[in-house]
Amino acid sequence: MAEPRARAARHKGQLNFEKELTLMLHAYGDASEPLHETIRVLDEIVTDFIIETCHKAAQAATISKRQKVKLEDFRWVVRGDERMLGRIRELLVLDREMKDARKGFDTQEGKVGLERSGRKRKAEDDGEGFKLAGVEF
């Protein structure tokens, strides 16, 4: 493994995943309020893992003569860990299914004419308008 990088001073003492780690520990049988030191150590481990993985992906992109990191660079970094790679594939498939499902819904449903095209139409006052938060309808 690459030599560990020092955490940036701006991130020292800051907990990035406190809520998530607390819930995860509780789900695995720990107390509902685990020790702060436990959360701090786990948060540091998770944060360091994410930083190291991103640095390795950036190195893979550089080797491939690209300036931008792509999904393939992350796959290359975790290629040796079949469980993690399988989970990444599973989440990507789920993400694709969610995008396809969203496309099936018409977000403009119920709107007519110019409202549907995204342009505003002048409201005609029929004398029965009302105000909500200072805006007349």
Number of strands: 2
- How much is the radius of gyration in Å? 25 Å
N-to-C series of helices and strands: HHHHHEE
Can you list the strand order of the major beta sheet?
1-2
Strand content: under 5%
The largest sheet, given as strand count, sense and whether it forms a barrel, is: 2 strands, antiparallel
Give the oligomeric state of the chains in this entry, treating copies of one chain as homo and distinct chains as hetero. single chain
Structural class: mainly alpha
Mean pLDDT: 81
Helicity, in percent? Answer: 40-55%
User: What is the general shape?
Assistant: extended
What gap, in angstroms, lies between the N and C termini? 63 Å
List unreliable stretches of 5+ residues.
Answer: 121-126
By DSSP (H or I, 4+ residues per run), the number of helices equals 5
Structure description:
With 137 residues, the protein is mainly alpha-helical. The chain contains 5 helices and 2 strands; from the N terminus they run αααααββ. It has a two-stranded antiparallel ribbon. Strand 1 and strand 2 form a beta hairpin.
